[in-house]
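Researcher: Please generate the 3D structure of the following complex. Treat every line as part of one assembly.
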Amino acid sequence: MKHPKWIALAVGVGLLFLFSARSENFIDMSNLMEIDELLDDDEGSNRGSIADPLEGLNRTIFGINNFVYKTLLRPFTHQYVLVVPKEARRAVGNFFVNLEYPVRFTGSILQLKIGHATKETGKFLINSTVGIGGLIDVTKEDPTFDLPEEDIGQAFGSWGINHGFYIVLPFLGPSSLRGFAGRLGGNTVDPLSEPWTQVDDTHERLLLQGTDTINDLPEIIDLFYSITNSAIDPYAAVRNGYTQYRANQVKE
Amino acid sequence: MLITDLVLRTYTRELNNGPKPTLKFGKAKALTESKSKIEIASKVSLNGNEANLNYRLANIKDRGWQFYDVLVEGVSMVSNYRKQFDEHFQRKSASDLIDLLKSKLKEA
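Model: Done. Output below.
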């Protein structure tokens, strides 16, 4: 091995590695792109297609939802934000996020993300105890507990089940057949919703579910408002936004 | 540009008098092998809410580095508008589009 030839070869190989590693650190100036080819190879620029055979019906429901959001819900959420202190809203939000742990757990398990499921369990245990029943998100600053939110619709997606087609649900807004089936699946493990609810009193249950929905509404309505106001075709904008968003969630 | 005005106006209106968001920037990531396109990740927080906002830049001949897309929670604004244009031109004309943008700008 001490033969000069071997040493030369070794140095040569080393230099080759060094160069290939080095050249990666520089931008290839001879290979700048033309403005026309900007979006050609872009992952994402052509994303977000979904079949929409019920477009006529969907557009009608979208129109009604839009009307309800703008005329009834938006004035209400503005008042809600004014009346309820920010800290209280955050605590209520944390509480319900914590409570939906079974949905995230099941979503993770169905995708065989055992690590995720374990961390979700840890987070749930810590927040339920130290975080006073979930009112405080103790784990918020800890990056190990910063997990992408899993649900059952995403698990279906990761199994290769396609969206099916796009549906706009009355009041709830955009979904797909897959997402809708996932939502029903989520309901069976969600401690609040039917069929296997942990809160037997219907009145109490609806009150809790209502609080959860109302607490999340202001941000959702504001976002919806920004999207539809800046859109050329609000229906197409929301449909594409939904499809892209779900595609990303499945990928994570 | 009508579309630029419309997007700017609808998305900045909330920021006019309210509290300012805080920004945290992450690392840049190359999108192509030649590294002529990159994505810079950032997190925007406002009123206790946090959102992922990623910027895409390209190094373009005779122009240098320029922004070409913004992704909000992974949703590309450029591809969102592309789909809307597709939808619009399947049924309506370019002059319809300009009229629509003008009327939207008045409302915004």
